[in-house]
Amino acid sequence: METQMASKQEIAESDSPPSSPKKNIAYKDPDDGRQRLLLELEFVQCLSNPTYIHYLAQNRFFEDEAFIGYLKYLQYWQRPEYIKFIMYPHCLFFLELLQNANFRNAMAHPGNKELAHRQQFYFWKNYRNNRLKHILPRLLPEPTTAPQISAPVPPPPVPPTTLAAPSPVPSPAASAVSPMQYGISSASVLLKSEARNSGVDRRKRKKDG
Description:
It is found in: Nucleus. This protein has a domain at 34-135: Arc Repressor Mutant, subunit A (Orthogonal Bundle), CATH 1.10.10. By secondary structure, the chain is mainly α. It is 56% helix and 0% strand. The longest helix is centred in the middle third of the chain and has 26 residues, at 110-135.
């Protein structure tokens, strides 16, 4: 009797549907996600290197839809509570560009990789000067007063010129020096000439005598 009861119970258990599987339990990292955070941080910061992006494009990682979704998921690094861990801010700039399919396809060409690397170098080279332009206060230009245009000063009046009378042309006779100019009178001249003549006459008389 007991054996029949045991056989019936075994048959009933075999005919009963299998028990439902256990419900899926959410996965929990043993270190509270610290290792996952470090791995994703390392990968995101690798995107700051155009050569690494060129490597991903040449190996057709950008053709995988799952990888494209992973890049979209990594945008949470732009939030303030995560961005403080970023040491290379250019990675977020390239992460944003990688959301565009045209950029992903263009980075497969070496020329575009060199162009991106060159532009990145120029940004680092001039970053300090460009930053100082926005930080340092700018001096206001001094107000320049427009020069006052004064009325033109009229020239002084020219006095009327009087025509001077032409000076008389000296005649040849007048040009001779007269004894009156030296204070010698005509009488003294005559006396001297007479004295000379009388002296000559006396000499002649002595010779004759």
